[in-house]
Amino acid sequence: MKSYSAYFVRDQAMAKAQQIFGQKVKPLPDTSWLLCAFDPDDEVPDEAILLGEESLTEAKSMELGEIFFVYGDTSVDWFVYEHAIDGKLLRKLVWYTTDDDWNCGWLLAEGEPEAWEAQLFRTDCLTQYLENETQRLKDEGKSEVVASMEAEVRQIWERKQIIAGQSLPLCDGTVAMLVEKNYGINRFNL
User: What is the crossing angle of helices 146-159 and 123-139, to 10°?
Assistant: First the structure.
């Protein structure tokens, strides 16, 4: 996988989904979801979407009920997620990586955390994050702030809270597939 994007809509909204997405609507076997507007080689959404100025799902959910959108790109590790129901945006997350691969993090985290997000807060990821940050701070001659950094990270980790502007928990483009799996969707069994 390099990149892809897709909308997922509850199957009871089939007629409305076809009106909105045209022929790009496909029932997903053994689930209550429809795959809509799947693009196997998509580009990252527009800046207004990434910054939270616009939504891909909020208006559509007024007609479709529950809908979520995922975008994942493993070549540059971008991830975008939106979840809305009945005209209300419940959750929006955007992870980005810049060209130099060292500047990455959560660009946007709106709404309340969802259950699937806890899977990003694995113990091995915490250990790796703390090792990397400790080394970075030491390399920058800031050894005196390692203890406070670790305390802050552990506090965020304990709450399992994604915060815009932070680079933890680490994320990449494959998280889009993790989201799908948590909704009971496995497109690779089609």
Answer: 160
Torsion of CA 44, 46, 51, 56, to 10 degrees: -90
Per DSSP, helices labelled H in 51-105 are 58-64
Residues 6+ apart with CB under 8 A from 126: 153, 154, 157, 169
CA distance 6 to 45: 12
In this predicted structure, the answer to whether residue 126 has a pLDDT above a threshold of 60 is yes
pTM of the complete model: 0.90
Tokens 């909308």, residue located: 7
> Considering Cα of 186, then 71, then 111, then 104, what sign does the dihedral take?
positive
Query: Can you list the positions of beta strands (E) in 30-152?
Result: 33-39, 66-73, 78-85, 88-97, 104-111
Question: Can you list the positions of beta strands (E) in 112-167?
Answer: none
Provide the pLDDT for residue 37. Answer: 96
